[in-house]
Amino acid sequence: MILAFAMSFSSCKKVHSDYPSIPTSETEQTTQTSGNEIIPEEKSLEITIASPLSYETCQYLAKLYYAKSEGLLGDGVTGDNVDLAFLDSVDIPFVLNVYSTSETGCNTTALNQWKSSGDMPDIFLTDSFDQVVSESFAAPITEYLAENPLLSADRIYSGLLSSFCADGKQYGIPYQTSAAVLFCDMEVLRSGGISSVSFRQTRSSLLQMLSELEKLNEETQTVLPFYLAGNMMPYLPGAMFNSEYLSASDPEKRKEQAYRDSMSYVESIIRAGYSYESLTDEQATELFSGVSPLLSRKVGVWSGTTDDLMIYDNYMPHTLCLMQFPGLREDEYSSPLLISYPLLVSSSCQHPKEACDLACFMAFDEDALLLTSRLQPRQGYLPSVSSPSVWKSYVKAQKYGDFLEQYQPLMSRAIMIPAVSGSSEYAKDQEYVKEYIESLNIKKVRESDSTEPTKRS
Asked: Which among 85, 111, 220, 311 is placed 20 to 30 Å from 318, CA to CA?
C-alpha cells in the first residue's frame, strides 16, 4: 500500500531528513548493498499546511485521506464515527507540517516571511485572495481539478468555486464561508418593548424596529438603534433585489436601480437619526464614554458577518440574536450574502496536483468535514458542500446553528461578496460609501434652552 501511495502522492517539498525512505520506481533503481542486505536510499515526502486547524486535526485528516484512498475504511464508517484509535494506527507515507494561522487564514505579510525563510507552506488558507494571486504566491490549479470526483456539480456550490477565479484560471478552493447578517442585542430591544424578532426581516420591519428603539431617546440619548447604517452597503442590493454584487467603484453599477434604492434606504435610516452617522462627536462621546459602541450594550442592531459571532457572544452570550439582511417582502428569505475563504496551492509547490487533491479532500470530502466538525468545531461557518449530513453536523451543532441552517435551501442562489481583505474592489466600494455619507453632512444636534430640558432635535 505504501508503494502504491508513494507513486501517486509525490511530495510538495523534497528535503533531506532522518525519516525512513519510501520505495518508489525511482528508489528501486538506486540502492546500496551491505552484505546480503539491500538498503533503499533514504528519501522523504513532506507537505506543509497553513490553516486555523490544529496539528492534531490535520494529522487525523491526512490519515483519513490516506485510509480512504487505500480503501481501509470499513462499511458504514464515516468521519463522524471513525475510531480515532484506528486512525492513530495509520502510518501515512509522508511528513506533515502544520503552521497556525488566524481563523480566516494568512495574509501576504505572513507569506513573505515564510518565503524569506524558505518555509513556504504548500497549502494555505488566506483572507487576501486578490493580493496573493497578484503577487504570485499561488499556483493556478484548473488542470488539476478537471478529473477530481469531489467537484461534481450536484454536491458542491459552484458559485463558491467560481469566485476564486482570476484571468480565466482557477486558483482557490472554497474552504470556509461566512454569511452577512444583522446582529441584535435582545437586552436593548426588550428595553424598547420588542420581546422577540424574526430571522426574516424586510426593510419596512427593520425601520419599524429602529423606530421603536428611537422612542427611548425622546428626552435623553439612551440607546443607538443602529450602528453604522453605511456598513449595510454593498450587501443590500443583493438582499433586497436578488441582484448580483454591485460595485460602487463602477459608475455604471451605481446607476442601477437596485443600487440607488439601496443607498436611499441607508440614507433614510441616517436621516431619521437611527444610526451612528447621525450623531455629533459630542453625542457619541456622551453616549459611549470612549467604549466601543458594539461592546457598550447600548446598540440595538448592527451589520456584520457570522465569522465574528463568538466575539459578540463573549459580551452578550444570552441576548445575541441574528436576522437576515432585509428583503422586500414579508415572510420571504433574502438571498444569502456570502464571504468565502479559500485554500490555495503555493506557487513554489513542486507537485501541485497532489497538494490540490489533498486540499480538495479537506474542503469537499464529506468524511473530512464530519471529522473536522467532530475534532475542532468552529462557530459561524457554512460548508461548501450540499450534503445534509454535513450540514447537520457542521452547522446544526453550532451554538447559533438554528439561524445558520436556514441558509441551506437557499445556497443555490447565494451572492458572493468579495469582502476578504486585499480586495481592491471592495476597498474602493467601502471608501465610496463612506465619502457619500459624509457628504450628506447629517448630524443630530442638541438645542439648549434656559427653561427647558435638553432635547434631541
From this structure: 220
